[in-house]
Specification:
Order of helices and strands: EEEEEEEEEEE
Number of helices: 0
Strand content: over 45%
Structural class: mainly beta
Largest sheet: 7 strands, mixed
Shape: globular
Distance between the termini: 40 Å
C-alpha cells in the first residue's frame, strides 16, 4: 500500500521560512518524480514545483520561482520543499504527489499526471 505523508506546515509571518517534508512508502521511490501542489480556499489546486526522480531536474511555477527550493533524498524516500520569503498569498494546503516517470523528467503541473497523493499540510502566512 502506497502512503505519502507531508509534514512541516504551520503559521509563519510574512518574510519567514518553512521547510516541508514528504515521505513516501510502498513504492520504488527513485522511479517517481515528486511534485508539490497547493490549494487555497475557493481556488483550484495548482502546481508549485516538481523534482525529477534523480533530483537532476527541478521546475517551479512562476509565483514561487526564486523563493522555493525542492530537493530529495532517495535513501530516505523523502522530498523537501524549502520555502523562503513567504507571502500571505502563499497561504494554502500544500500537497505532495508522486508521478511514475520512466523517462526521468517531470510530468508538468497537471494534477492528473500524478499517481499518488498525500493528505496535505497547512501553511498559513500572516501579514
Amino acid at each position: 500500500q502506497v502512503q505519502v505523508v507531508e509534514s512541516g506546515g504551520g503559521l509563519v509571518q510574512a518574510g519567514g521560512s518553512l521547510r516541508l517534508s514528504c515521505t513516501a512508502s510502498g513504492l520504488t521511490f527513485h522511479d517517481y518524480a515528486m511534485g508539490w501542489f497547493r490549494q487555497a480556499p475557493g481556488k483550484e489546486r495548482e502546481g508549485v514545483s516538481c523534482i525529477s526522480r534523480a533530483g537532476v531536474i527541478t521546475t517551479y511555477e512562476d509565483p514561487v520561482e526564486g523563493r522555493f527550493t525542492s530537493s530529495r533524498d532517495n535513501a530516505k524516500n523523502t522530498v523537501y520543499l524549502q520555502m523562503d520569503s513567504l507571502k500571505p498569498e502563499d497561504t494554502a494546503m500544500f500537497y505532495c504527489a508522486a508521478a511514475r516517470t520512466p523517462w526521468g523528467g517531470c510530468p508538468g503541473s497537471r494534477p492528473d499526471r500524478y499517481n499518488y497523493w498525500g493528505q496535505g499540510t497547512q501553511v498559513t502566512v500572516s501579514s
